[in-house]
Amino acid sequence: MPTDDSRVIVGAAQHALEMIYRRGYQYAKAGVMMIDLADRDGLQIDMLHTQETEERRQKSAKLMGVMDALNREFGRGAVTLGGMRRNERWRQRDTRQTPRFLTSWNEIPEIKMG
Questions:
Q1: pLDDT of residue 1
Q2: Burial tier of 71 (Cβ tally within 10 Å: 0-12, 13-18, 19+)
């Protein structure tokens, strides 16, 4: 089922980890890759979609919007899901991140003349 709810995405990632985890092996931090992304407004619902699921989707969208707004205002990671730990050792390393010239005003290259 398509979702933009962080709780659902984190829950699916935790479930996948539980499926592959084996005691005694060493593990390294990894990310979750999301593919086949689509605009929320382009979501096609199925015939069994009910008013209850629509209300739940709207509440989820509102909650995720509030979390995003708080993180924009107070900084990345200010509001996280309950199971997410803030540990500097495991902090994401953005050193190899590709510049986002087309999506971030702050990353547009500047040219100085003169």
A1: 64
A2: middle
| Domain ranges across the chain | 6-107
Mean pLDDT of 64-79: 89
**What is the rounded CA–CA span in Å between residue 19 and residue 12?**
11
Length of the chain (residues): 114
Two structure tokens written together for 88: 């500097």
Say what angle helices 6-20 and 51-74 make with each other, to 10 degrees: 90
Report how far residue 69's alpha carbon sits from residue 76's, in angstroms, rounded to the nearest whole number.
Answer: 10
- Give the integer Cα–Cα distance in Å for 68 and 66: 5
| Structure-block tokens of residue 107 | 């990353």
What confidence category does residue 102 fall into, taking pLDDT thresholds of 50, 70 and 90? confident
